[in-house]
Amino acid sequence: MTVAEAPDLRSFHARAPVVQRPMFALGLRLGSALLFSLLQLLVKLSGAHGLWFPETLVWRQVVPTVLLLGWLAARGEVHRLRTARPWMHARRAAIGAAGMFFTLGVVLLLPLAEATVLSFTTPIFAVILSVTVLREQVGAWRLGAVVLGLIGVVIMAGPSQAHLPLFGLMVGIGAAFMVALISIQLRDLGRTEEPVTIVFYYSAMSLPMLALALPFAQSGYDRPLHHDAIGWLMLFAIGLLGLFSQLLMTAALRYGRVSSVIVMDYAQFGWSLLWGWLVFGHLPPATTWLGAPAISAAGVIIARREQLGSRS
User: Fold this and answer.
1) Structural domain of 125
2) Which of 42, 51, 61, 154 is deepest in the core (most CB within 10 A)?
3) Model pTM?
């Protein structure tokens, strides 16, 4: 399609709604969960390799920005980046940049499996926000699920902080809160924007924000732009996995409801458990095996009630 054939942005919001494809959306979200588990694994390995975390986040955004722009330019389709909602993209980029410090930083503080389980509290936060911010009426099932999920978190914390430090728990819960906010934004942007457009502006607009940290590289870490071949390979792989994980997640929220597709994120626990065992020789203690089912069950109950509510 040529530039002249591009859709008129004045009628962007009047376009026909995106056709919902629930099963396709679930498959996309499942693929996104696998790629994100690999991304978390690489971030954890990069920290052990001596890469400075804020720089890892910068390259996480550099690679998608360059690759997407180059791909669109090579196809003569840069016009696909036209948007009538630049401020929405900017807000998504700002929240997403802050969210990355939580969602990727938690794997440097906690084992992969435990960090993943804490991310399953996202539906719980969605319910809490709906009550406290939106003043929505929430039934007994959802309130009960919130209590069940919080009990699961307490069980996972264990009798002492030796297993899961308090700061790591706070970062993990903060990551779930940020994912809840971002999922709502992606669902809204997906009404009018292509996944490639959303991911490009997220990467390009958040990049300058994250780059502000580079001059303050801490001693004890490799200086920015001074890495061995393995370090550069890690940074590129992190950016590549982040790109395709974001594309799949954004597309899933375009074709399916947030409350439906988010259930597929529970598959990430299996992947994180596998990587933690194969790479780090770590198996979660009994407290995790007791707390994880409670948190997972709470998320499934909330998602199921959302689905039933949408049909009524």
Assistant:
1) 29-75+86-311
2) 61
3) 0.76
Query: Does residue 9 belong to any structural domain of this protein?
Result: no
- The tens digit of pLDDT for each residue in 259-291 reads 566 666 677 778 888 898 899 888 877 777 777
Contact (Cβ atoms closer than 8 angstroms) between residue 13 and residue 192? yes
CB of 229 closer than 8 Å to CB of 169:
no
- Classify residue 185: in a domain, yes or no: yes
Residues in the chain: 312
Q: Match 């996972």 to its residue by tokens.
A: 156
Strand, helix or coil for residue 20: coil
Give the position of tokens 């690679």. 63
What is the rounded CA–CA span in Å between residue 32 and residue 17?
24
> In the prediction, which pLDDT does 12 show?
37
In a domain, 22, yes or no: no
Taking alpha carbons only, the member of 53, 35, 33 closest to residue 43 is 53
| Domain total of the chain | 1
The DSSP secondary-structure symbol of 1 reads -
Residues 238, 40: Cα–Cα separation, whole Å: 9
Q: What is the DSSP string of 78-137?
A: GGGG--S-HHHHHHHHHHHHHHHHHHTTHHHHS-HHHHHHHHTTHHHHHHHHHHHTS---
Angle between helices 140-157 and 286-311 (to 10 degrees): 160
The token duo for 114 is: 């435990």
Tell me the pLDDT tens digit for each residue of 207-255: 999 988 887 765 545 556 678 899 999 999 999 999 999 889 888 877 7
Residue 210 located in a structural domain: yes
